[in-house]
Amino acid sequence: MIAFESVAKRYPGGIQALSEVSFSLQPGELAFLTGHSGAGKSTLLRLIALLERPSRGRVLFDGRNVSKLARRRIPYLRRRIGVIFQDHRLLSDRRVFDNVALPLVIAGLPYGEIKRRVRAALDKVGLLDKERMYPPMLSGGEQQRVGIARAIVGKPPLVLADEPTGNLDPELSAELMRFFLQLNELGVTLLIASHDLDLIRRLGRRVLVLKSGQLIDDGLSVAGDHR
Q1: Looking at residue 22, what is its pLDDT?
Q2: Contact 130, 153 (CB under 8 A)
Q3: Kindly report the CA angle at 2 between 121 and 195, in degrees rounded to 5?
Q4: Contact in structure between 62 and 26 (CB atoms under 8 Å)
Q5: CA–CA separation, 122 and 152 (whole Å)
Q6: Which residues contact 116 (CB under 8 A, 6 or more apart)?
Q7: DSSP track, 85-153
Q8: 126 secondary structure, DSSP code
Q9: What is the pLDDT of residue 93?
Q10: CA 199 – CA 151 distance, rounded (Å)
Q11: Rounded to a whole number, what is the distance in angstroms from the first to the last CA of the chain?
Q12: 81-84 and 214-220: which strand pairing?
């Protein structure tokens, strides 16, 4: 589904965020992306979602080189990708329902379908009773779950999550990971950036390790693995 071929990203001022990164992620796979702060995790996710373009190399999505995708085609690609941001990026002046509905409104779906899908997504994250509330009225964990509902409401085949457990306590973090596993069982492909190594090791899934913009390890994480 996703392939990076010798991808590099260099920002103005000479900041090298990624260097010669190559890997592939198959449809239906769940993998974690880890590394120190500033290792390039967020940049890598942003390249997949076309929030950034690579300086060199190719980023493929379903075999298509999205690095060269025309600007007018980007919104259509993004409909196939759900993105969960660490800082939620919710609209504080819109109710929870409207925040989750936003991707469907942009896609032009009829209101009846929007209503059905939004309520189904909120039910999945346990927030159906909060649909009329505003984000500032919710806890940090609840806001994160609203962001997840917004990411999955369009039923995208790929979900990217940038430090989704970063602001959550261990119990909520474990609950969120269980939800991601359930999504994966439904056939959704997931790439999750996280620094929670203990939680990652317990799940025993594939882990991509970045260090200073380079991919230094790619394999299964197992209990007792201290890389």
Answers
A1: 96
A2: no
A3: 70
A4: no
A5: 10
A6: none
A7: -TT----TTS-HHHHHHHHHHHHT--HHHHHHHHHHHHHHTT-GGGTTS-GGGS-HHHHHHHHHHHHHT
A8: T
A9: 96
A10: 22
A11: 27
A12: unpaired
CATH number of 28-54+71-220: 3.40.50.300
User: Beta-carbon neighbour count of residue 218 at 10 Å?
Assistant: 13
Q: What is the pLDDT of residue 227?
A: 39
**CA dist., res. 31 & res. 160, Å (int):** 10
Which residues on neighbouring strands pair with residue 2, listed in sequence order?
25, 61
Residue 46 is which amino acid?
A: R
Q: What is the pLDDT along the chain (227 residues), one digit of tens a residue?
A: 999 999 999 999 889 999 999 999 999 999 999 999 889 999 999 999 999 999 999 999 999 998 888 888 888 888 899 999 877 889 999 999 999 999 999 889 999 999 999 999 999 888 999 999 999 999 888 898 899 999 999 999 999 999 888 767 788 788 888 889 999 999 999 999 998 888 888 888 999 999 999 999 998 754 444 33
Spatial distance between the Cα atoms of 198 and 204, rounded to a whole number of angstroms: 10
CA distance 97 to 119: 8
Euclidean distance between CA atoms 227 and 224, whole angstroms? 9
Structural contact between residues 197 and 34, judged by C-beta atoms closer than 8 angstroms: yes
In order of 43, 185, 189, 210, the CA distances from 34 in angstroms are 12, 22, 17, 6
Q: What's the confidence (pLDDT) of residue 88? A: 80
Q: Are residues 155 and 107 in contact, defined by beta-carbon separation less than 8 angstroms?
A: no
Q: Which of 173, 185, 215, 175 is nearest to 39 (CA)?
A: 215
DSSP 50: T
> In angstroms, rounded to a whole number, what is the distance separating the alpha carbons of residues 227 and 225?
6
